[in-house]
Amino acid sequence: MLAVQASEYLFPKPHTTGDDACAYTIIDNALLVSVLCDGVGSAKRGGTAARQCVKFFIDQFKNRPKAWDIPKTMEVFTRHINSLLFKESMAQYGQIELLTTLCLAIIEGETLYTLNLGDSRIYLLTAEGEFRRLSNDHTMDDEYLSHVLTQACGLSENIDPVIMSTPIAIGDTLILCSDGVYNLLDEKSFFELLKKGLGSSTIIQHAAQTCEPSDRDDMSLQIFRIESLDPLHAIKNIPLPIPETLSVGEIIDGYTLISPMMEHGRIWKVTKEEQTYVMKFPMSNDEEALDAFVREAWVAKQITHKAFGHAWVPEVRSMRYYLMELVEGVNLQEYLKNRPLSVDNAIALGKFLHRAEAHLLHLGLVHGDIKPENILVYQRDGEAGVEFKMVDFGSIVEIFSTNSRAGTPTYLAPERFSGSVINESTEIFSIGVTLYWALTGEFPYGEIEPFQNPTFKKAKNPIKLNSNIPLWLDSVIMRSIAITPDMRYRHYSEFFYELKSPEKVKPFFCKETQLIERSPVTFYKIGFFILLALETLTFWLYVSK
What is the DSSP secondary-structure string of 216-243? Predict the structure, then answer.
């Protein structure tokens, strides 16, 4: 997962809103997109061009075609925004007025891609202490003018963008800045300030003190210190073929394919040296499917808890696949086809799901698709009771992801349908729906179809559908599936504490529950005092006559 310590600061000239603009985003925890623009002051709408340019790149990179590599994406997008600015200038003013410099920096995997137009700059400070500039100033001097821009965004209809690729490593620092910064700081001074780990605001304020406020230009600075890089990009680029067809008896790296385990034929039961395993292949070789598979395999091998089947990627492979241990069992939906889960097994299931999710949380992950079909039920030889295993590594995502449609609609918390992040509370909702269904055979809010925008109404208490459920467990489940997040458990630890401490569980009432249900004693007390007040009032009215 890509992680950076980011710092950015804009400091306009006194008494102005400024013509600089900058922004950054990290897409899918894997791609850093950073843009810095300095609107040309001599153009009437330089600041507008800068802001428009920054917004364009941030928005467009989030929706870029998956088939395009980063250099192609950078070039196509740069040519497009340049053309838009140029044509708008000519249409509105008949001359160049929407004009801005551009610095664009993208980190994918272990590579930094950079592009610049104009005189804003990009620097790299490596973990070893090397400080170098990755951009060229597109300026010229002649006998009449100095520092004339030869390239800028919106300057002419055609541009010739040059894209550089540079290896990047953990501990490196990426810097983007406008000329208002480096004109006040020579590279040696700039290097010394960056080496100290100072933030953008501190460095700009330090530079601004070296001149009179009226003498300085707009100043903008972005600093990104690389804390971790996305490992999946390098894994994906390993040249491994993906088999189009697979057949029984085929041998791959010593593993013999025994039988497909799913209709799509991409998950197989295999044997090697009298041991049986599960081998999984990508669904196809298109970009999106490969991205998903590489990520799934990488996530699977990070997970070591016994709540999940063991998974690994062989060091030497002739094809694209990963392996999992074979757990002989049936999923919870099949197991409960004609009967509800016993209360004891339901409690055990709740504790199991807590342990599984707590382990994922330690890795910064959540399952994303908790439901009976993704829970295997099996029995250990010679032991009473049932055991559980979580499956489907493909659904696991980073906590606080915003993919609101990840998962199965019937088990999604209400806020997931409006784009809320996936967190502990939304996962607890899915656990609650699973327990509700396992104990009653019904869904608390009905079955929800894909792409439906459901309306959530008060759920029936599970104890009304299964009288074997104790009151305390009924309250735990109802709190887990509360429609509003503020009434639901916020953390796994809260859910687990009440699951293992029945005597500590307080009755749960949703906001719609009437007072007579919440507290009959309070209801009748209030009623008594109201009646008493009415009787007293009636008495005094009678006496006063």
Answer: ---EEEEEEEEEE--THHHHHTS-----
- Contact between 108 and 101 under an 8 Å Cβ cutoff? The reply is no
Which pLDDT belongs to residue 120?
Answer: 95
Q: Which of 223, 226, 121, 233 is nearest to 168 (CA)?
A: 226
pLDDT tens-digit series, residues 460-509: 999 999 999 999 999 999 999 999 999 999 999 999 999 999 999 999 98
DSSP label of 506:
P
* Strands of the 311-312 sheet, one edge to the other: 251-252, 255-260, 267-272, 275-280, 322-325, 311-312
The sign of the torsion formed by the CA atoms of 407, 408, 413, 414 equals positive
- 208 and 112 part of one domain: yes
Report d(CA 252, CA 243) in Å as an integer: 10
pLDDT at 515: 44
Q: Give residues with Cβ within 8 angstroms of 164, minimum separation 6.
A: 113, 114, 115, 134
Q: What is the mean pLDDT of residues 111-138?
A: 94
Look up residue 487 and give its amino acid: M
Number of Cβ within a 10 Å radius of residue 540: 10
Q: Which domain holds residue 481?
A: 332-513
pTM exceeds 0.85 for this model: no
Distance CA(420)–CA(485), nearest Å, equals 11
Question: Is pLDDT above 50 for 440?
Answer: yes
H runs (alpha helix) in 320-417: 332-335, 343-362
What's the pLDDT band for 131 if we cut at 50, 70, 90?
very high
Average pLDDT over every residue of 146-165: 87
Among residues 183, 182, 166, the alpha carbon closest in space to that of 174 is found at: 166
Q: Which two tokens stand for residue 115?
A: 């592009």
Residue 526 in domain: no
CA distance linking residue 116 with residue 103, whole number of Å: 4
One domain, residues 153 and 88? yes
User: What mean pLDDT comes out for the span 54-72?
Assistant: 89
| pLDDT at residue 36 tops 80 | yes
- pLDDT (average), residues 308-318: 92
Q: Are the C-beta atoms of residues 159 and 79 closer than 8 Å to each other?
A: yes
User: How far is the C-alpha of 99 from the C-alpha of 345, rounded, in Å?
Assistant: 68
- Backbone conformation region of residue 431, classed left if phi is above 0, alpha if psi is from -120 to 50, else beta: alpha
Cβ atoms of 274 and 351 closer than 8 Å: no
Cα–Cα distance for residue pair 416/423, rounded to 1 Å: 10
Whether 262 and 171 map to the same domain: the answer is no
Tokens of 482: 């509360």
Domain membership of residue 496 (yes or no) is yes
Domain count, the chain: 3
Domain harbouring 122, CATH code: 3.60.40.10
Q: What DSSP character marks residue 211?
A: S
- Mean pLDDT computed over 275-289: 91
Largest Cα–Cα distance of the chain, in whole Å?
Answer: 109
Helix (H, G, I), strand (E, B) or coil at 22: strand
Asked whether residue 315 is domain-assigned, the answer is: yes
CA–CA dist 468, 343 (Å, integer): 7
